[in-house]
Amino acid sequence: MANQQTVTDWTPPPGFGPVPSKVPGIEVYAPVPEEETAPGVETFRCPQCNGITAYSASDEQLACPHCGYTQPVGAQRVGLAAERFEFTLQALDGSERGWGIERRQIQCEACSALFSVGEGGLSATCPFCGSNRVVGLAALHDFIRPSTVVPFTVDDKRCSALVKEWLGRGWMHPPALRHIDAIGRLVGMYLPYWVFGAHVDARWRAEVGYEEEKRVLCDGQWETETVVRWRWEDGNVHLPIHNLPICGTDKISTVLQERLQPYDLDALVTYDPDYLAGWQAQAYDIQLKPAWDLGKRRMREQAKDACSDQIHSSHVRNFSMTADFDEERWRYVLLPAYLATYTLQNETYHVMVNGQTGVVAGQKPVAWLRVWLAVALLLLPGVSCGLLGLLTSLLAGVGAFLLPVALCLFVAGLAAVLYILYQARSADDV
Predict the structure, then answer these.
(1) Domain housing 166
(2) Were both Cys, which of 49, 125, 329, 396 would link to 67 (CB 3.0–4.6 Å)?
(3) How far is it, in rounded angstroms, from Cα 259 to Cα 220?
């Protein structure tokens, strides 16, 4: 009959929700008991079937996996115009606390990482170290609530494809990486970031050397030699620095953090707990003050580079710089990332994916036997040509022309070898 409703179109009556089923493949629904919710804390239940909803990265809205109900998130896109805060007690005391949503805290007994999962969420594996030694804790509500968030736009299907392609890329890595099951371990998580801004006024002073040529008498003959004339110079730089991100957790490699950058902060939206529905999130374990100290060090490095740009000589000594900071501001934001760990030859490696741009960063072991074979093959033409030229030159006196060719081949091969070794060492040092 045309009006007959199919099984796939069926939705549970209002007030009924999914409950655990003991029969595989069979979904069971039952009346949902009324729950008390703490004041000011949201829960995410579907208004049609009372199932647990989650934020969909592909649809960019809340979605119910049971009945297909969707609901837009009521956040406002603010981008780089998002509110910034001063370093005052008033700003800190006035900040909201907690996630604003019912969440369960999970702590890893191996690496002490503390993260949270949404209502109904379970986590048996730590996304930071891969350990199964995790325990549930009471939810924390005393940390500063994020003011803004960059939502996930890369869904799990695209993320899995990106990681699979990344694992299979590169000849200097073991072929076994193509068969590693890291895709099933990917966990989408919002990571805490402090974002700083300031105006830096830097003053520098240094001895700067300039090369000059002069004529000198040597063994009765006049020759030209180069000397360096030193003189004191100074200058100042005014450097506005905006949106400097400092990760709020020390559980992630600094190298991997930098490789995930940049995030497009123009996509910042006001914090809404809806974005956390169905996703894990981590509160900061690096407090605001130590994060700001690290931010100031990086700002000083940028100011030093700007001061160095004012010196038009490669000869510099006794360099000194003082830096004053003004208009210091901070934001606490959440940025999206996927985390996974995998094991190869009893070693654990980490993979991360930028949940906004899809950039993949991670650790891959180096197959050093392949690298050394490549080194030998690159050096072989120059060495072989040189030996052939030397032998023919000594025995027949006709191979001398091969020696310059051999030298060129050897230099080219050596340059390629140094590049390969640099790439291999960089991959091995993450």
Answers:
(1) 79-100+125-132+141-196+240-289+330-362
(2) 49
(3) 61
